[in-house]
């Protein structure tokens, strides 16, 4: 006959403990969601506009560079703008997703270290502005804070337009959006002196090898994402969470205006195209954003 398991005293404690953790997590998720929901316009529009003003003022030496390019201020502002993405994603983080994002963070640091040390896959480049604590004095420790939003927003936008059935189509579209966002980001970052290449390229100072590198690293990163999340659950969350892609709005406003200020018109056109596409979609809620 099968063995009968005798209940142990700590079984009840474990259930109580797990319930308490779940309750606390639900409270945190609810609070974060409420804060983001109540401050959508400030986060998605006001913060990037203030960021543009400060960065351009620093570039024109109207305010001290120590203020305009303060690494902790940059990271803090980025964390505020990325808060809608975090609030939207947190309820979806289970053990598999946590492991996947951890692997992705390690990959992000590893590929960037390889790029700085060998020039591959992005070409010979270096950082011109301190972006917080540095890993081995070579790459920013907070790099995932800047890289994850590009990747995750691209994944969410592809999921929004394609749904979940075709992994290959979703993969290709996600990679295409990642490359489009980097076509916007890198020229603006070069103009501000955030980073640059030893031999500047023809695309506003950015060499073609950088985009080949992004195609390679982006493919690996997207593959990690594909195995990290329940895509049906992400799509369901995306469809009922009106602020999930607000960080993408912030990104396009910020870097679109930065590029416009220096006459980088192709990145400006890309920013406007993606912004109009997003805002014109049936999914986006204008009223909640306050526009």
From TrEMBL:
Instruction: Establish whether keyword ATP-binding is in the entry.
Output: no
Q: Which residues cross the membrane?
A: 41-60, 72-92, 99-121, 141-162, 171-197, 209-229
Q: Where is the signal peptide?
A: none
- Matches recorded under InterPro entries: BABR_hydratase, CruF, CruF-like
Do you know which Pfam families this protein is assigned to? Caroten_synth
Give the keywords, sorted: Membrane, Transmembrane, Transmembrane helix
Superkingdom of this protein's organism: Archaea
User: Matching NCBIfam families, A to Z?
Assistant: crt_membr_arch (TIGR03460), CruF_Halo (NF041333)
* UniProt name for this protein: Carotene biosynthesis associated membrane protein
Q: Which organism is it from?
A: Halalkalicoccus paucihalophilus
